Amino acid sequence: MTEVVLRVEGLCKSFSGVHAIRDLSFEVESSEVMGLIGPNGSGKSTTVNSLAGTFPVTSGEIVLTGTSIQHLPECERVELGLARTFQTANVFPEFTVRQQIALGCEATLKSSPLSSVFGAEYRQGESEAIEARMHDLLEITGLLDVADDLVGTISSAQQRFLMVATALASEPKIVLLDEPAAGLVSHERKTLSDLIKAIRARGIAVLVIEHHMALIMDVCDRIVVLNFGSKIADGTPAEIRSNPAVIDAYLGEVSDA
Ligand SMILES: Nc1ncnc2c1ncn2[C@@H]1O[C@H](COP(=O)(O)OP(=O)(O)OP(=O)(O)O)[C@@H](O)[C@H]1O
Ligand SMILES: [Mg+2]
Q: Whose alpha carbon is nearest atom 28 of ligand 1?
């Protein structure tokens, strides 16, 4: 049975007079991949940053599985089940891949997430669960072979998959991916598509921002389109692809649409 995981109602965000988001409303259901697309500067990253709590919103409501979260700090939103990745790589080069993912586990732990990787003890029972979760995350993101490498030495594509693994480590109900395919070549984008579908298959909702339309059309169940901070369309990939307003504002300019 599907349920609404995230509900956004009348969201507005202004930066000293610039209306980056205007009266935005949408819902994301469990096990749904929702795409958020639109031209450069249309408010996509501002939407994700507002949902994640990077900065306060100007007005509007954000409801995560029944709880209003717009006044909560970022870390509490993570604890409630909202995780995100960043448009630009946001990783710790001096950590190993395993240590970076362990950071993402923090929200779900009683003892320090870095306990075992830095040699200390987890509380009883947590160690095995964390090891199993870590192995699973390394496997589905294709990072098993580089698990003990320093993050600064793996490829930029692997760093992007690592951001997804770190987000998933907090066991979210919804994960927000801001341009996860940036810098990926064709076969890596295919791997990313498969990963997004695997996340959905685990019952986790996904909100994905992308300019790669082939990827968006392949993975999304539904797409919301922004233009100048306002929602101009909300529908299935087939509906969005043939929507004249969307073609006019955006799709006409995207090469792989
Ligand atoms: N921290 C900020 N301070 C001031 N203005 C901002 C800030 N963040 C975003 N903006 C402005 O808000 C608008 C929306 O920007 P946003 O980054 O959300 O666009 P986007 O849809 O993610 O674009 P892109 O596809 O290029 O990543 C732009 O006009 C941008 O200049
Ligand atoms: Mg952006």
A: 41
